Predict the structure.
Amino acid sequence: MKPLTKAIFPVAGLGTRFLPATKAQPKEMLTVIDKPLIQFAVEEAIAAGVTQLIFVTGRTKRAIADHFDATPELDRLLREKGRETVAEELRTIIPPHVTCIYIRQPEALGLGHAVHCAAPLIGDDEPFAVLLADDLMRGDPPVLAQMAEVQRATGRSVLAVNPVPLEDIGSYGVVAAQDPGEGGSAPVTDMVEKPPKGEAPSNLAVVGRYILRPEVMGVLATLPPGRGGEIQLTDAIRQLIPGTGVEAFRYRGRRYDCGSKMGFLEATVDMGLEHPDYGPQLRAHLRSSLGA
Ligand code: G1P
């Protein structure tokens, strides 16, 4: 297997959990402080050694492609105004060794279908990452880089998992695996997409980071629709278990579900409090608002 150099960002989803904000704007362009969710995911991928960013996009998502384009007029204007630091920041969002590729998913037929839209770009000796940008992951080293380490060591597909309360388990893909403890990984023996409460094989939920072996593309090509009538990535990964194997990895770090309003608020507050410019003011503001 080649090393990990490709990442797929399925960004064609409609973001109905975040209306009205996402009525005319991609959910991936919602910003935590000043950075869109998709840029956090892209930075995480680049930090893990990815050099080809493959966006599976759809109608109303043009802002994402625009965001990653060079902007020579803006660059010139900023430099004329002496704002070189901001100009440099914008120029280096996509470093010169990284390429963006855009593919359309003509119809929203499920996450598995979205990933399979990128199949022509994945060689049969290439592992690839899948990042769901509405899961904002924070870790040191970044979560995808932690996963790439496990992928290199085991040669298997690797799923980021996290224990969740059983009342929430029906919102996730769930693995059957021993809990490896934070920072550890364990072989997956089965997995199921959004099981009804009581039928979940564990409390370990898959969050939106995957490193998959290329064989999964062949599985997706003929996979029938699963839960919710959609072509499910979980169902395809399940078929890799008896062959090349799948590892559940409990990343070190924190996930914010920024596809939900509450998760987004938590990310904004936590990252605001850590912000070098705004942290102290925000802390004072929150204290006064809470009367504490
Ligand atoms: C998708 C996957 C699910 C996974 C989740 C993580 O679901 O289908 O297996 O646990 O992402 O965020 P979605 O949230 O898109 O319905």
